[in-house]
Each structure stands twice: as C-alpha cells, then as structure tokens.
Amino acid sequence: MQSLLHGVFLAIGLILPLGVQNLFIFNQGATQPSFLRALPAVIAASVCDTLLILLAVNGVSLFLVKFEVLKEVLVGMGVIFLLYMGWLTWNNIIAHNDVEATKSFSIKQQIVFAATVSLFNPHAILDTIGVIGTSSANYEGMEKLLFTIACILVSWLWFFSLAATARFVSGRAQFTNGIRWINKLSAVFIWGSACYMVYSAI
Length: 202
Hints:
The protein has 202 residues and is an all-alpha fold. Helices cover 81% and strands 0% of the residues. Helix 2 packs antiparallel against helix 10, helix 3 (35-57) crosses helix 7 (122-136) and helix 5 (68-90) runs antiparallel to helix 10 (179-201). The radius of gyration is 17 Å and the shape is globular. The termini are far apart.
C-alpha cells in the first residue's frame, strides 16, 4: 500500500506542472469538434508516458546516462519537432469565433505531436526515467508492481481529465472567444521550450 500511495503522489507531482505536453492535450480538448476527436492525442500521450514509466522502472535510465550522444540526438529531434508543432499551433486559427470551424489537427498529427512532446522532451524523460526510475529502485516484487501501476494510472486519468475539462469549458462563449489567444500562448510556450532545450544542451 505504501508503494501504491508513493506512486500516486509522485506521479501527480510530476504531471501537474504546466508543460508542452499538458498544453497540447488541453488545446486539443478545447479545439477539436468533440471529445472523441481529441482521444488520439490523449491516448498517444498516455501510451508514451506508460512506455517511459515501464522503461524507467526497468532501469533504462542507467543506459541513457552512459550514452551521452543518445541524449543529444533526442534533444535535436525534440527541438525540430517542437518548432514545427509551434508553427502549426500558432496557425490553428478559429474562423468567426466558432470552435467548430477550427482547423483541427488530424488524427495523424495528434498522434505524432503527442508522441513528440512525450518521447523527445528531455524534461519528460528526466521526470519518468530519472525520478520515477530512481524511486522504483526502493521496491521489489509486488511493491514495485503496485508503484508502477499507480504511476501509469495517474498519467492516464490526468490526460483524459485534462482533455474533458478543456472540452467542457470550450463550450462557453467567453472561453470560445479566447481560444485564439490560447493557441498563440501555446505556440509561444512551445517555441520557448525548444529554445530552452537548446540552451540546456549547450
């Protein structure tokens, strides 16, 4: 039970702060015509987080520490994808203040970008592989399994809740009028994250 609670609170602490991944999921929940249309992004992000958590628990963090070149490649790929994603988000314009008229991301774009901000984001990698992986080393057997399940469940519940909340508030007129600015803010934040990734790598 201790490992289960530890996993829950640790995952919540890591996933709550505002980041590119959360912004993208919220943006899709708010701008897609329906909640179901935002599910590709939600599921892709959840699956990627699950993969990172499983890799972390199984000790891949030690592998990344030894191979610095791999980390640099991930940073480079992450910067390129984030710059492109920021451009698409910036141009995700709403015509006549109508959410239904939004130039929505396609299923393929949602999956690609959700995977990008999850797998090619050094901060996400550090959170899962560094923090969760290190914490899981304190447990063995069933305790480690419960810890892992808790972290994964929190991730899935969070992304579904984030998209659902965004979809709920997007129906309100005052929010609809502000979606254009949310897209712009998201794009700036994404570009800023790309710049910070470059700065951190230098």
